[in-house]
Design goal:
- Helix content is 46%, strand content 13%.
- It contains 7 helices and 7 strands, in the order αααββααββββαβα.
- A 5-stranded mixed beta sheet has the order 5-4-3-6-7. The chain has a two-stranded antiparallel sheet with strand order 1-2.
- Strand 1 and strand 2 form a beta hairpin.
- Helix 1 packs parallel to helix 4 and helix 5 runs parallel beside helix 6.
- This is Maleylpyruvate isomerase family mycothiol-dependent enzyme.
- GO terms for molecular function: metal ion binding.
Length: 245
């Protein structure tokens, strides 16, 4: 997958989804936010990460200090600012080099890490906008499946040892039934003697969660619950309670 092209495409698709919307429309999946606040969050977040990359920072910056962090007041200007925000991430990575290590919230990572992260920030917030506006969400199954993988990576990296998202000895299996995904549409997460880990292996879990890849992504990120849960539902519920992001 070309994450750079996808970042531009998903950010542009977000803009297309909200272009004619009432800017004060509330976003139920982001309580207290409006469509305008959601757009500002996405664009400023792109610019925040671009500034971290461009400055080769090894510590975070206050979002209020992001350069050009406020969009113009008019819709066309704001959406152009949004698109430029995504481009800023790509430009910053190209300038410093994809392998240059910079700060991330999961520890130092190559600058290119941010491109994939911002892709999935855009996909999930595009879903927020489309759902808030009562539209039909369409998302490429390969992109959604990669979002599931990335979300699981973040959840395991950020897991609290005192309250792991899977209790010792438990296994959680996710299965996307979209055509053509193959092994990349399955995720087996375990907590065994080697700790928390996951793979694309097929396996039987204490709980199994099935649905389209996009529905699994939305369920993991607590945007919807349109999935089928088999086995011990408490394993899945505990995972959701223990993996806020």
């Amino acid at each position: 997958m070309d994450f750079r092209a996808t970042l531009l495409g998903e950010t542009r698709a977000f803009g297309d989804a909200i272009r004619r919307a009432d800017p004060n429309t509330p976003v139920p999946s982001c309580p207290g936010w409006t469509i305008t606040q959601l757009m500002k969050h996405l664009g400023r977040g792109h610019r925040w990460s671009a500034q971290i990359i461009a400055d080769r920072r090894l510590e975070p910056i206050d979002p209020r200090e992001v350069r050009d962090g406020k969009p113009p007041a008019d819709v066309d200007g704001a959406l152009e600012w949004l698109d430029q925000s995504a481009q800023a991430v790509i430009d910053a990575v190209e300038r410093v080099g994809a392998e240059t290590r910079v700060w991330t919230f999961v520890g130092p990572r190559p600058a290119g890490w941010w491109v994939r992260r911002r892709v999935h920030e855009a996909t999930v917030h595009r879903a927020d906008a489309v759902l808030a506006l009562g539209g039909d969400l369409e998302m490429d199954s390969e992109l959604a499946a990669d979002g599931v993988s990335e979300w699981i990576d973040l959840a395991l990296t950020s897991a609290k040892p005192a309250d792991p998202p899977l209790r010792s000895g438990q296994t959680l299996h996710l299965h996307a039934h979209d055509d053509g995904l193959g092994p990349t549409g399955e995720w087996t997460i375990t907590n065994d003697d080697e700790g928390l880990q996951w793979s694309h292996a097929h396996g039987k879990g204490d709980a199994a969660v099935r649905g389209r890849a996009v529905d699994l992504l939305l369920a993991l990120s607590r945007r919807s619950n349109d999935v089928e849960v088999l086995g011990d539902a408490e394993v899945w519920e505990h995972w959701l309670r223990s993996t806020p992001f």
